[in-house]
């Protein structure tokens, strides 16, 4: 049986090819138009025109934030007292060892921290030292044997553990400060380590430097200790503090009268609970006095521990101490289950909010001191913006003029693509709420140069094809095809460099890398799609004998 095949006529083949080109043009024009419109929608709220836009548009779109070098702000250099971090770790180990020995029913008197890295376990009469020593060494790998005394065992921290604690103190301080500042509400802060124990903080556009310093510098070591009811406060004031206790104050300030007061307390040294057990901290209002206070919620371990403490010490006073200051010392009426507590202290609303922020973010593992505090004025930022914008405009005008003079109509097309490149890049920066710095502006200018470079490569290829005698349409297609590999190669190598800068550098260099990376990706689109679609549109309308290039 013979099959019949209908031959496709040349006319229908040309029509199909023409229809396919029209669809391709429509899709590419649609993509260029969509991305340009989307970039304009994202970018306009960050411009001076943003104030005239409708509020639903202006307020719902993220804006490009200006860096410290452009809008001013605060620069801080902090030093972390890592040795105090080691001291705190030793104290925590003393508490952990105490709990472990109680759990195993060993007979002992006290577990004391006798030095920065040493512990002393005083045994009860009749308790053999060997099983206690074995239990401690087996359970706590960070502790090593330190010798024996009559009726006591000596231990010290392992050297590797001490080194780890020092590094951890700086790293943890960095994370705690980052959490505090993020909750404080500063746009795009820079927080990074410098050396072994220093931290650099940049807060662009900060409006309340004093409050920020108070928030950053507060160690926020929250401790719950029992008040030593048997101790004489009068004797303690003269320096006669009982062994195992310490002297602290409850310092208050009356905002209405301006009077300061200090109430002395003698509290027992053992820390029953710390801020590490706090899961959440919120500001609440006391209905009786209409004053704010901080409500604490403990995690599961902390809730159990707090219930045990309040159950074992009913009718005693529990001092709530923050950074060495007694905020309150209420009498424990009964066992408190549920993991809730509160800190009162005649706070203002801002003080209560900041204290809640600090407790939620966590205590610093070690105190920090401010080595350098520099406030950058907005006049420097305004001057930098003016010079950066001026340099960008001058550079752009020179590039535009060169492209028109050298490549004529094709240069106009390249310039239009260059403008699209800048608009889309600013739209992307706005979408990610990026911070614009002087290095970021340099990245934008470099992106403009990369965009021109791509079009120069393509146009020179097209000119070579025209000199070989090809038609305008064939020369354009061949030019883009042959330049494709070179353009991709140059952009990928630059993108790798930008990625390395972003990974291994920080601060302003990262801003440069971000703007350069986004610009490179956008430039690939505008150079290989944006300009070619214009040439294809022109050549599809009529048969060109010559190309203005």
Would you tell me the structural class of the helices and strands?
alpha+beta
Gross geometry: elongated
DSSP summary, beta strand count: 19
Major β-sheet annotation: 4 strands, antiparallel
Give helix % range: 40-55%
Query: How far is the N terminus from the C terminus?
Result: 59 Å
- Helical run tally: 14
The proportion of residues in beta strands is 15-25%
Structure commentary:
- The protein is α+β, with helices and mostly antiparallel strands and 549 residues long.
- 53% of the residues lie in helices and 21% in strands.
- The protein contains 14 helices and 19 strands.
- The chain has helices spanning 10-43, 55-58, 68-71, 82-103, 129-139, 159-184, 209-217, 233-237, 300-312, 349-361, 378-431, 438-467, 472-504, 508-541; strands spanning 65-66, 73-80, 108-113, 118-123, 143-149, 152-157, 190-194, 198-204, 222-226, 245-253, 260-268, 273-274, 278-286, 291-298, 318-322, 325-328, 340-343, 368-376, 435-436.
- A 4-stranded antiparallel β-sheet has the order 7-8-2-18. Strands 3-4-6-5 form a 4-stranded antiparallel β-sheet.
- Strand 7 (190-194) and strand 8 (198-204) form a beta hairpin.
- Helix 4 crosses helix 6.
- It is elongated and about 110 Å long.
- Residues 1-9 have low confidence and may be disordered.
Question: Topology of this protein?
Answer:
Layout: H1 10-43, H2 55-58, E1 65-66, H3 68-71, E2 73-80, H4 82-103, E3 108-113, E4 118-123, H5 129-139, E5 143-149, E6 152-157, H6 159-184, E7 190-194, E8 198-204, H7 209-217, E9 222-226, H8 233-237, E10 245-253, E11 260-268, E12 273-274, E13 278-286, E14 291-298, H9 300-312, E15 318-322, E16 325-328, E17 340-343, H10 349-361, E18 368-376, H11 378-431, E19 435-436, H12 438-467, H13 472-504, H14 508-541
Parallel strand pairs: 1-19
Antiparallel strand pairs: 2-8, 2-18, 3-4, 4-6, 5-6, 7-8, 9-12, 9-15, 10-11, 13-14, 14-17, 15-16
């Amino acid at each position: 049986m013979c099959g019949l095949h209908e031959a496709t006529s040349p006319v229908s083949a040309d029509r199909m090819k023409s229809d396919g080109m029209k669809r391709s043009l429509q899709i590419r024009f649609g993509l260029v138009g969509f991305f340009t419109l989307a970039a304009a929608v994202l970018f306009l709220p960050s411009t001076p025109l943003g104030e005239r836009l409708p509020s639903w548009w202006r307020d719902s779109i993220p804006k490009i934030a200006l860096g410290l070098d452009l809008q001013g702000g605060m620069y801080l250099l902090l030093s972390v007292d890592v040795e105090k971090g080691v001291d705190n770790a030793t104290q925590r180990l003393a508490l952990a060892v105490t709990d472990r020995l109680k759990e195993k029913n060993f007979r002992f008197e006290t577990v004391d921290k006798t030095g920065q890295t040493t512990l002393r376990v005083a045994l009860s009469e009749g308790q053999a030292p060997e099983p206690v020593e074995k239990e401690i060494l087996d359970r706590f790998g960070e502790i090593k044997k330190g010798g024996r005394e009559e009726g006591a065992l000596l231990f010290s921290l392992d050297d590797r553990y001490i080194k780890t604690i020092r590094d951890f103190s700086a790293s943890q301080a960095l994370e705690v400060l980052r959490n505090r500042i993020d909750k404080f509400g500063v746009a795009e802060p820079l927080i990074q380590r410098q050396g072994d124990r220093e931290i650099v903080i940049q807060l662009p556009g900060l409006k309340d430097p004093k409050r920020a310093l108070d928030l950053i510098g507060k160690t926020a070591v929250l401790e719950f200790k029992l008040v030593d009811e048997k101790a004489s406060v009068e004797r303690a004031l003269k320096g006669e503090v009982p062994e195992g206790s310490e002297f602290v104050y409850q310092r208050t300030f009356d905002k209405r009268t301006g009077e300061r007061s200090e109430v002395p307390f003698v509290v027992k040294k053992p820390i029953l609970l710390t801020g590490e057990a706090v899961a959440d901290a919120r500001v609440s209002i006391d209905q009786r006095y209409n004053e704010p206070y901080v409500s604490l919620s403990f995690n599961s371990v902390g809730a159990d521990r707090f219930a045990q403490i309040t159950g074992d010490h009913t009718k005693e006073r529990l001092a709530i101490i923050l950074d060495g200051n007694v905020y309150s010392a209420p009498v424990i009426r009964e066992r408190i289950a549920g993991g809730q507590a509160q800190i009162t202290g005649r706070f203002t609303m801002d003080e209560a909010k900041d204290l809640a922020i600090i407790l939620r973010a966590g205590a610093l593992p070690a105190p920090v001191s401010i080595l350098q505090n520099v406030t950058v004025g907005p006049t420097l930022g305004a001057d930098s913006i003016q010079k950066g914008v001026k340099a960008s405009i001058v550079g752009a005008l020179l590039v535009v003029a060169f492209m028109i003079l050298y490549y004529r109509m094709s240069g106009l097309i390249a310039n239009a693509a260059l403008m699209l490149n800048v608009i889309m890049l600013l739209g992307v920066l706005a979408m990610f709420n990026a911070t614009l710095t002087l290095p970021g502006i340099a990245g934008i200018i470099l992106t403009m140069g990369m965009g021109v470079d791509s079009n120069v490569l393509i146009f020179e290829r097209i000119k070579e094809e025209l000199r070989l005698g090809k038609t305008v349409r064939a020369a354009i297609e061949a030019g883009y095809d042959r330049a494709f590999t070179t353009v991709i190669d140059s952009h990928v190598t630059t993108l790798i460099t930008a990625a390395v800068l972003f990974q291994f550098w920080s601060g302003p260099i990262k801003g440069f890398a971000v703007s350069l990376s986004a610009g490179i990706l956008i430039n690939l689109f505008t150079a290989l799609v944006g300009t070619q679609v214009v040439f294809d549109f022109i050549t599809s309308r009529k048969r060109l004998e010559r190309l203005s290039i």
